[in-house]
Design goal:
Layout: E1 5-7, H1 8-15, H2 19-27, E2 34-36, E3 39-43, H3 44-54, E4 71-72, E5 75-76, H4 79-84, H5 86-97, H6 107-117, H7 119-132, H8 134-149, E6 153-159, E7 167-171
Antiparallel strand pairs: 1-3, 2-3, 4-5, 6-7
Helix pairs in contact: 1-2, 5-6, 5-8, 6-7, 6-8, 7-8
Length: 172
């Protein structure tokens, strides 16, 4: 599942910024978080993804081809978690394949709508939610839309048309 979740203050301390900067990153869509009550919580994976996007390539590396990493500082990315979500990644890929290109900035919502409309995909989604929880599954849908499309997070939050998610961040 999710493992240890870190508070806003812990995340701020880890990246050596203040709490307000972290809150601003969340509101701009630069980093994903879980909102529990009035506190944002961050998984190690979310912190690692944020740090990876901030990476400055060494000479000769391409910015678009990040070096593979199993560890970023003290933040480890558990391979078991990645394996648990392989089925979801494949589901997102099927949904993406069903949507005509060029993809719009609302691709995450469109993927969720495609899953809703296909009975088999919807059953698969429901089973994944039963196993991993809705927050974990939906967070990973957004992550997979970002990585599989190669689009960039535009930092704009929108209300979803899909009933699977309430909001999403536009990609472009």
């Amino acid at each position: 599942m999710l493992g240890t979740l870190h508070t806003t203050d812990e995340f701020a301390q880890f990246i050596r910024k203040d709490r307000d900067t972290v809150l601003q990153l969340v509101q701009q869509g630069e980093v994903e978080a879980y909102l529990i009550g009035d506190e944002y919580l961050f998984s190690k994976e979310q912190i690692a993804e944020y740090l990876q996007r901030q990476r400055v390539p060494k000479r000769g590396d391409s910015v678009n081809q990040p070096r593979p990493a199993n560890r970023l500082g003290t933040v480890s990315i558990p391979s078991q978690e990645d394996e648990e979500y392989v089925e979801l990644k494949q589901l997102v890929q099927k949904a993406l394949d069903s949507i005509s290109k060029p993809w719009t900035p609302d691709i995450t919502d469109q993927v969720c709508l495609a899953i809703e409309r296909n009975q088999d995909w919807h059953q698969q989604y429901d089973e994944l939610v039963r196993r991993h929880g809705k927050a974990g599954v939906n967070s990973h849908i957004g992550r997979f839309c970002l990585t599989l499309t190669g689009l960039r997070n535009l930092g704009e939050r929108r209300q979803a048309k899909s009933k699977l998610i309430s909001t999403y961040t536009r990609l472009g």
